[in-house]
Amino acid sequence: MSLTSFDLAIGLDATSLNTGMAELHSKHHDAVFTGRESTQFNGEQAVLTWDVRGAPTVVLSAPSQDEWDKATDAGGKRPPTTPLPSENVLRITLTNTDAALTNAGQTTSVTGKDIDVYGAVSAKDGKLSVTVLAVRLDTAGMDSWKAFFVQHLVIPHLVKAGGNALSQLTIPTQELFGEKLTLVPDQALITGTHLVLATAADIDGNATPDPLAAGFTWPDKPLWALFSRRLIEWVLDRAIREKALGKQQHFSQSAKPLTISADYRLRGYTGLRLAADSLTNAQATLDMAYGVNISPLGIDPDKCALFNATKSM
Question: CB–CB of 265/246 below 8 Å?
Fold first, then answer.
């Protein structure tokens, strides 16, 4: 899978994601990484609880076929009924996890387990979506009842809870220079080293980004953001309108024997575009009003014949 266009793309490597996971776990452990749910077991009401006590870790690659065959899907089937996807799959380890089932006054529990979650990454409904495909938990050493409890009760619930917990990354509407800019995540990609979330911006009613240039490659920095030319032009246009358009500006400089002063105002502009070979240079046709005074040798500018005029260009 490859991305063909975007207005804003954000890339994070596994180290950056794991730093974010650790912070999320530290600040929102109870809200995100614990759960309690009523369920039915043997025709009776039961309560399942779980607690991911360690910060999860992310690996931006799919599991091996052997790891996949040892995993359990949401329906409690091992190996999973669907084949291992070939792309856009990551692994998240839920570290030091406890789970318990209380039924008819009896509690069955597992503690301190590392659980591998295999998920498919996509962009859905304007945010990053991680669909949990399967979960792998080593049941070696467990008796048959506890292994059954883990495979058919704990894992299906963790699949459901994991899908909700992992699909949290989105980009809210931004307000820049008094205008709202909506960035809609519409593509997600695992490159092998980075998780990339790409967005399309609604710019003056047009939400179709320009296509990527031939030979485009992703940056290799741990955390990065890339902007399209049209998004940069939109931001530059709004910045000029907010900060410069119609505002009187003054300039004055003295260097013997001359004193030069100017007053100018940007009345309007058309055709604002980034230079073809640069993202840091722009060009436009300007409509400016300005007045310039030059005082040579300390002469009063009103008496100077060089010029004291207001012009437009």
Answer: yes
Give the DSSP H or E segment for 108.
strand 106-124
Q: Tell me if 16 sits within 8 A of 169, measured CB to CB.
A: no
- What torsion do the CA atoms of 130, 48, 37, 165 make, to the nearest 10 degrees? -20
User: Tens digit of pLDDT for each residue in 69-82?
Assistant: 999 887 778 888 89
CA distance 194 to 10: 9
pTM: 0.73
Average pLDDT, whole number, for the chain?
A: 79
Residue 303 Ramachandran class (φ > 0 left, ψ -120 to 50 alpha, else beta): alpha
Tokens encoding 187: 């593509």
Two structure tokens written together for 242: 């907010």
- d(Cα 260, Cα 237) in Å, to the nearest integer? 30
CA within 13 Å, CB half, 210: 10
Residues in the chain, total? 313
Q: What is the rounded CA–CA span in Å between residue 260 and residue 65?
A: 76
Q: How confident is the model at residue 194 (pLDDT cuts 50, 70, 90)?
A: very high
Closest CA to 90 of 51, 116, 127: 116
Is residue 169 helix, strand or coil? Answer: coil
Query: Cβ contacts of residue 90 below 8 Å, gap of 6+?
Result: 58, 59, 60, 61, 62, 118, 119, 121, 130, 190, 195
At residue 294 the predicted structure's pLDDT band, cuts being 50, 70 and 90, is low
8 A C-beta contact, residue 291 and residue 262: yes
Q: Where are the alpha helices (DSSP H) in 150-247?
A: 155-166, 229-243
- CA-to-CA distance for 148 and 111, rounded, in angstroms? 15
What is the residue whose two structure tokens read 């989105």? 170
Is residue 37 within 8 Å of residue 157, measured between CB atoms? yes
In this predicted structure, what is the pLDDT of residue 305?
42
Q: Pairing between strand 258-274 and 248-255? A: antiparallel
